[in-house]
Predict the 3D structure of the following.
Amino acid sequence: MNFNRGINLAGKEPGKLPRFRFFLLTVFAFACLVGILAVYIYFSKDLPDLRDLTRYQPAILNEFYSSEGELIAQSGLERRALVNLEDIPPHVVNAFIAVEDRRFYQHSGVDAKSVVRALLQNLITGRIVSGGSTITQQITKNLILGPEKAYSRKIKEAILSYRIEKNLSKDEILYLYLNHIYLADGVYGVEMASRNYFGKSAKDINIAEACLLAGIPRRPELYSPRVNPSNALKRQKTVINIMRNQEFITERQKRKALAYKIKIIPKQEPRGEYIAPYFIEYVREYLEKKVGRRAYEKGGYKVYTTLDMDLNLVAYRAIRRGIRNTEKRQGRTRFTIARLRTLEKIEEFKEQQRQLAFQDGRTYRAVVTVTGDVDEKTSFATVEVGGEKRKFSYIVDPERYLPPPDGIYLLPERLNPGDVIKVRVSVSDEKVTDIVPLFWPQTQGALVAMDARGNIISMVGGYDFGLSKFNRAVQAKRQPGSAFKPFLYSAAIDKGYTQTSKLLDVPIIVDDWVPENYDEEYMGSIFFRESLVNSRNLSSIRLIMDVDPRYVASYSRPFGFGSRINPYPSLALGSSEVTLLEITAAYSVFANSGIYRKPNFILRIYDRNGSLIEDNTGEVYLRYERRLKQGEESGEWHYQERLSPQPSESRSQFLGLLAEDQREFVTAGEFGFFIKKVPIHYFGNTEEFKRVVSPETAYIMTDMMEAVVSEGTGLLANSLNSKARVAGKTGTTNDYTDAWFIGYSPMVVAGVWVGKDDNTSLGDKEAGSLSAVPVWKEYMSRVLDKYNERKEFEIPSGIKIRNTPLGEISFKVKPTMSKDEVLRGLKMMVVESAEKKAESSEEYDYNRIRSLFRRDKEEDNE
């Protein structure tokens, strides 16, 4: 008997097994669902708010423009330019989709197939090597979570990507991606990458160029068109084939793209970075202080400055030439600091440096071991320092003011084996990465220039910004020497002195101080005018003792001196330290008929939203299209037409301005166009201005300082090829430590300083007339070609010009000077100038002078 027949060996009845399996699967699925839900809930905690993506404002560049609308510099954490998706051609978008996320339009943030493929790769290798990331996931990683490689981060990434897909459209996601992606060479986004590599906007690149860009994100440094061009081209061909396989392009387009020869443009920087680096850094610091570090780093500001790029080129060249000439006169022309004549000495030098412990950025002495020529203009040299060798190419051109090509240095002389030079060593991870030859002259210099409205048009703060970022035009406080005398003489004029007042140029002792004249000679009794023109020290000290040093110090401060002016007798010789910008702005008072204008270097600043946040133009205006149309109709540009300032958005709402009203206000782009048409001196300057002295006093000072240029210490400046009148004053400090010249025309004032950073002597006879005046002359010769609309200084109504033994000179006749003061000065001149009268063709008679004055007074009363 078969007892097993009909018995369920599993202990279960037939038919119940499928149900049990179904139950197990259900439980398992439920457990998985609960697990997934638990993971979702757990990792959803403290996830970032996605609302920031809807207000996407990545770091972009701040842009700085010259007074003529030229982009001269950019700064920011990331080199990026935002571009709207509709301005990006479809083939550019498709190139990135094809290679980065082919199922972009099918998935909801996470592509399951890509995730499984990546998971298998990671399990096989035992580490995370692939993420299977979609474009949405890349946005999540780059904008929200960061690049950390961990499974927990991938889970958060998937959750956030899903949420992004639910809250943003596909086009919005592409906009974020194409503007944020890093594309090597320090650039972000397709727009900046297109400009950087091809020199054109993203809307103008072709399929071949688009595929080159699309191939970069996988491994930016490996596929960088600049660093690894061969790898970049191989990757580009791969992307082209992928686009064809996915039918984004036709076979004909594929062949054309493969045949196209990619041209990567040389890396370009706005020329202001090397022509006006001191000015740009000055503006950058101001902008950061104004808006705050965080806003500055976010970028997007458009800063329209007062800088004249062409004139700053001239200034930079003049300063470099002046410094080189000073070095040459003093026998300091050599770039090499020593010469080793024999192989034994070279080997001995190298042995002494074997044990050098290099520090990053430090300067060391190196010996030249090998030299030769690369081509007709370029040479090469190999240097050795501390056992490290480097070969570099260089050009010999001491007056060159534009940078040489990349990788080629600019040196003042040809090198030979055995020459010892200074080099800067770069160190990374305890290894020497670079050795750079340095030319650092002992002499330094600075130049700053302003137009009649106080706008800074040129600023050079030293010989080489790369060697020293210290801006000597605004940061260095130095004694101005005799360049300060005009403020003493101006104070004396307002105390009643005239150009014909008499001063004594004879020895004087003030307490224990025994001052001397520059030439150590004495002129005896001289006229007030002669004392300034010939820069006599002893007569100036007597003058300040009479006027009172405290009065002179107090009188000088309204000229814009922020530095301390000490009320001592030595102030007559410029003993109080000031900056070049301060004293140049102070001289502008004389050029501007007694009005002080605070130096201004900003025309306008717009933020990233196009709102005007600073305006120093003093102008209000209409949209440029209307102005341009009017200009075309009349055949000229209407400089004098009043314009309207752009209010902020909140201000517009407060004023109840309609949309069509708001369109009348100029935008940042329109302003950039506008300033290309209008010379800088047509703009106003809303910065601080005030009357410091009367027009009469200012003119008398100008009259005397014209004589400084025509017959005194500034004589060299008189040889300008211009009909414009110029005035100025030299300055030299003890032991030829500082050399100055501050001079001006009716439209521009410019100041030059030459000296050493360590306050040692420039060398024998290096006075302001020798070291500073030639620099000023070279610069102003170009300035006067451009700023030539006013050639004469305006004569105030209270000034009368009289012919005297000193020539035609100016006198105040009203409102600040009495008849007796004029007559007293003229009588002294007649009595004490008998010898000069004998040489003159005209007899001077006191009664005749009295009658002339009476006649002038009658004319004034009419």
User: Anything to note?
Assistant: The CA atoms of residues 739 and 771 lie 6 Å apart.
